[in-house]
Design a protein that fits this description.
- The structure holds 2 protein chains of 2 kinds.
- In chain A, 46% of the residues lie in helices and 10% in strands.
- Chain A is α/β, with parallel strands linked by helices.
- In chain A, the strands form 3 sheets. Chain A has a 7-stranded mixed beta sheet, sandwiched between helices. A 3-stranded antiparallel beta sheet of chain A has the order 5-6-10, covered by helices on one side. In chain A, strands 8-9 form a two-stranded antiparallel sheet.
- In chain A, a hairpin with a 5-residue loop joins strand 5 and strand 6.
- In chain A, helix 12 runs parallel beside helix 13.
- Chain A starts with a helix and ends with a helix.
- Chain B is elongated.
- Chain B has a 7-stranded mixed beta sheet, sandwiched between helices.
- In chain B, 40% of the residues are buried.
- By secondary structure, chain B is an alpha/beta fold.
- The chains are: A alpha/beta, B alpha/beta.
- The interface between A and B is large, with 42 and 33 residues.
Chain lengths: 499, 464
């Protein structure tokens, strides 16, 4: 891509500068045979990984000629030789197969080896070894294992499927001693759907962590920075068993763990605890509350009078934006699109109508009928993946697709703390399966699907998320501004550099 | 710590005076175990390690000598209160307020159940409820109860329990005794929950999960003395009363120091964070109106109603008899205690239980009965459908059917007892040559057997 080519050129220039500096000290390098072959491969390859490495390799034939060498020179020589070997290996790899584009560009050239990424265990449920490992890990942490329920559709048999009627608390003792009561309560609320929605789950998680930190006392001969992180691990496993963690929760947990490990060891316990509590407050304030305000400010610029805005499901951020826009006296009306089995649109409808916004309510099957009236589509996101795909409630990609067909602009609103380093192009690999019994409905006293488990060829699938490709999304509104979907990796890189 | 368990074992057993005038109710043997062993066992199975037991000194003494109580592995923190006192259950909670550091689970000593306790506690946890309780469908006791003349009395005062559509939220609770003209339901309840199911066939299991704020509230409000009678209806009513939003307004007349339950509930830390999470969550417990989840109310009461499964409160004689028959099925224990000496020519039914150190002689027949510890049963005795407590001696040739014989009684030779209740330490004269077939004996509190009727073959012979 253009970006990568630009970066390659920059790095080549940088390497040339280094080479020139070295050449000033030593003799002029004799053009070696290794130079030309590496250079064409450099230009031909699209892979950023092997490309800059051949450049320092071209230095080695130059250095090899000099007879008298100092220690630093020897070191540099050895390093350069290693890098040339590495480069030649990678050059071979790069020529042969399709290079996998690494989503996260690595700045220093020495770390350009492709990192072996292991599949997370929650997408390997059909692998008995992984299950055994998970069972062992949970046993060690004294957390009960939640068993899967019902027949899983074969395409999704690699994911967990739990039943709402079998909560994890069945297997826990009642005055829970292993797991902090706030976390048990949170896990229950997650599994029963009382706390649902990316932002709500993160806030509730941080609230529970605050209580955990308050009740925590450092055992003797232990350091708070290490012990507290170890204490949090079983809680996180427990919450994962209750309901798979969301990307926003994952980022919040990473942040907390980093803050805890950064506590200096000479800090007193009370001080450390209050510092952590204020960090959590700060995180929520910055990443959720203020971010919502900033996003609302940007979005209001995009809402003009007379607009007909389509929203899907119940996204707390989109609801906030619409309420703020209404406060600022913009004239618009909203069409709420809803889908079974969750029917979250009803709650969004209630919140908007309570403010006085005029709304229409349709089910997703009617979206192509209603789209000719719509001027803009506002969607919320559960996470934004590193390749620009938007992961959101199932049905979102449908809406984005139809909107694209009707040439209606699609705007996705997402805070930056939901940006995730994962890469996904389809909704199969990593998703969440909800309780299949939620699809069963009783109308006029008859429940048709009551005995669905007895029909051998029938499987009920209740997917929770799907991914929308960046081609269907016109704009992403974040607290950093309005960016195109493909700039997500840049934001991620900026975040990493900041941290 | 999440929950503290409190066992209320100071109750009198006022509805079965015949049984309890000598043995206090918590120590009545059911299936050869003291009655209070059952709720303690339930708590132990679920995972509690400590229980606060509120009881009288007499019961405490008996507890320390009873072998079954030693099986209880939990740490029992016994708090003794006055026997005669009019101390209600709420008064008892107030008494131990200093020991209560977290939310409480209050259990009554006469509850025998195999319910999955996590169902009640999950309601309490998930909805951050103030009160969560357990109710079961009331049972009809079919067995003939000794001492009852003819048909059962008219049904006792009923309880009207109103729940919402999901069957979990408790909206209304009143006893027939408190309602004079009819059932009146406040408009505020109907506005918030237009569909309410009112049930009358429910029995309260007296198992409550209460928030710590409620115990603090009790400490301030000394007028509430019974949990079931006063506190629970008060909390259920308070769910829908108008809350005072501004804390500055304080009624001068009444309680300047007393806090209302709302203030106590709201004063938890991190309240704004919880509010934020609830606001951002796309969940609502009801639909159809414009209000947020729980209608913005902080006080919530929940109930778990069980249809199937064992749940008895042993507070009447009928319940006691039924419990004796069903309670052993809860546990897989050998029907015959290993230390009992049973002769070979004894016919024992499979649903009978024989206690420790019993001696059962030849040619006896024991069917569907419970025989307590240290009981002696001599030859040619037929025991059917009866409950025989500890230390009883039954001489030869007796025929005992449908009876309850309390501890240390002596049944003389040849006695023929049907549907009798023999009090503690009583002696039935050996009938010997006399052919009296039916004897009804009722006990009253002054320790003397009073015969009401002696009927021979359905003819009234004499009565005194």
């Amino acid at each position: 891509t253009k970006e990568e080519k630009q970066r390659l050129r920059k790095e080549k220039k940088h390497q040339k500068k280094i080479k020139e500096k070295k050449d000033d000290k030593e003799e002029k390098p004799v053009g070696a045979a290794s130079q030309p072959p590496t250079q064409p491969s450099q230009k031909g390859d699209l892979a950023p990984a092997p490309a800059p490495v051949p450049v320092p390799a071209s230095e080695t034939p130059a250095l090899a000629d000099k007879p008298a060498k100092s220690k630093a020179d020897l070191k540099a020589e050895r390093r350069a030789r290693q890098e040339s070997e590495r480069a030649s290996k990678q050059g071979k790899k790069g020529d042969v197969g399709q290079p996998v584009p690494t989503s996260k560009p690595k700045a220093p050239p020495s770390e350009l080896q492709p990192v072996v990424k292991r599949l997370p265990e929650h997408v390997q449920v059909d692998n008995p070894d992984v299950l055994k490992k998970l069972a062992k890990k949970l046993e060690r942490q004294q957390i009960p294992l939640r068993s899967d329920y019902g027949y899983k559709v074969s395409l999704f048999s690699h994911l967990h499927q739990y039943s709402r009627k079998a909560p994890l608390t069945q297997q826990l003792g009642i005055p829970s001693t292993v797991i902090h009561p706030a976390i048990v309560r949170l896990g229950l609320q997650y599994s029963q759907g009382i706390v649902a929605g990316s932002n709500a789950r993160s806030v509730a998680l941080l609230h529970a962590f605050k209580q955990v930190i308050r009740d925590y006392t450092t055992p003797p001969n232990e350091e708070l920075s290490r012990d507290l992180v170890n204490k949090l691990k079983p809680y996180i496993s427990f919450l994962n068993q209750c309901r798979p963690l969301s990307a926003s929760m994952g980022n919040a947990i990473k942040y907390i763990k980093k803050e805890i490990s950064n506590i200096p060891s000479q800090c007193k316990e009370e001080e450390a605890k209050s510092k952590l509590l204020s960090c959590i407050e700060c995180y929520i304030n910055e990443k959720i509350i203020l971010a919502a305000k900033a996003i609302a400010k940007y979005s209001i610029e995009k809402i003009s009078d007379g607009d007909v805005i389509l929203v899907y499901g119940c996204s707390s951020l989109v609801n906030h934006i619409l309420c703020e826009a209404f406060e600022k006296k913009r004239k618009f009306r909203v069409i709420v699109v809803d889908s079974r089995p969750r029917l979250e649109g009803r709650e969004a409808l209630r919140r908007l109508v309570q403010r006085g916004i005029s709304c229409t309510y349709v089910l997703i099957s009617a979206v192509s009928y209603i789209l000719p009236e719509v001027s803009k589509v506002f969607l919320g996101a559960h996470a934004l993946l590193a390749n620009g795909y938007v992961m959101s409630r199932v049905g979102t990609s449908q809406i984005a697709l139809v909107a694209k067909a009707f040439n209606v602009p699609v705007l996705v609103c997402c805070e930056t703390y939901k940006f995730c380093e994962r890469v996904q192009t389809d909704s199969f690999v990593s998703n969440e399966l909800d309780d299949p019994d939620e699809l069963i409905v009783t109308r006029k006293g008859k429940t048709q699907l009551e005995h669905w488990q007895e029909v051998p060829s029938l499987g009920l699938l209740n997917l929770v998320y799907d991914v929308t490709p960046p081609d269907f999304v016109d704009l992403v509104i974040t607290d950093l501004g309005m960016i195109p979907c493909t700039s997500v990796p840049v934001v991620l890189r900026v975040k990493n550099v900041d941290q | 710590m999440e929950l503290q368990a409190v066992l209320m074992a100071a109750g009198g057993g006022s509805r079965m005076p015949d049984l309890t005038y000598n043995t206090p109710k918590p120590m009545l043997p059911v299936g050869n175990k003291p009655l209070m062993w059952y709720p303690l066992n339930l708590l132990e199975r679920v995972g509690f390690e400590e229980v606060i037991v509120i009881t009288t000194k007499e019961v405490h003494k008996m507890m320390s000598t009873d072998p079954k109580m030693k099986d209880v592995k939990m740490k029992l923190d016994v708090v003794c209160i006055q026997e005669d006192g009019d101390m209600g259950t709420a008064d008892a909670l107030r008494h131990i307020q200093q020991k209560i550091k977290t939310d409480v689970l209050v259990v009554s000593c006469d509850l025998i159940t195999d319910v999955a306790l996590h169902e009640v506690v999950d309601l309490f946890r998930a909805h951050n409820a103030t009160l969560a309780m357990l109710m079961s469908k009331a049972h009809e006791f079919t067995d003939t109860v000794p001492g009852q003349k003819g048909k059962k009395k008219t049904a006792e005062q009923r309880d009207f329990v109103g729940v919402d559509q999901s069957g979990k939220r408790l909206l209304f609770m009143a006893n027939e005794a408190d309602l004079e003209d009819g059932l009146s339901i406040r408009k505020s309840i109907m506005r918030k929950h237009p569909r309410m199911h009112i049930k009358t066939g429910l029995e309260d299991a007296h198992l409550y999960c209460l928030k710590k704020a409620v115990v603090d509230f009790l400490a301030d409000n000394k007028s509430i003395s019974s949990i079931r009678g006063e506190l629970v209806p008060y909390l259920v009513r308070k769910q829908f009363s108008k809350t005072t939003n501004s804390p500055k307004i304080k009624d001068d007349a009444e309680d300047q120091n007393q806090k209302t339950i709302d203030e106590l509930l709201i004063s938890s830390r991190d309240e704004p964070l919880l509010q934020l999470a609830q606001e951002r969550s796309c969940w609502n417990d009801h639909r159809g109106d414009m209000s947020e989840a729980y209608h913005g109310g902080k006080l919530r009461c929940y109930v778990h109603i069980i249809d199937q499964g064992l749940c008895y409160r042993v507070n009447t004689l009928a319940a006691y008899i039924e419990a004796n028959r069903l309670a052993p099925k809860l546990f897989e224990e050998p029907a015959v205690h290993p230390s009992a000496v049973i002769s070979e020519r004894c016919q024992m039914g499979s649903d009978s239980i024989i206690g420790a150190l019993c001696q059962v002689a030849d040619k006896t027949s024991i069917k569907r009965s419970t025989i307590g510890n240290s009981t002696t049963v001599k030859e040619k005795v037929k025991v059917t459908n009866s409950i025989i407590m500890h230390g009883v001696t039954i001489e030869e040739g007796c025929n005992i059917q449908g009876c309850v014989i309390c501890s240390n009684a002596v049944i003389g030779r040849g006695a023929d007892l049907k549907y009798c209740l023999v009090g503690s330490g009583q002696q039935i004269e050996p009938e010997g040559e006399d052919q009296i077939s039916f004897i009804h004996i009722m006990q009253c509190s002054n320790d003397k057997p009073v015969c009401f009727r002696i009927v021979r073959k359905h003819r009234l012979v004499s009565s005194y």
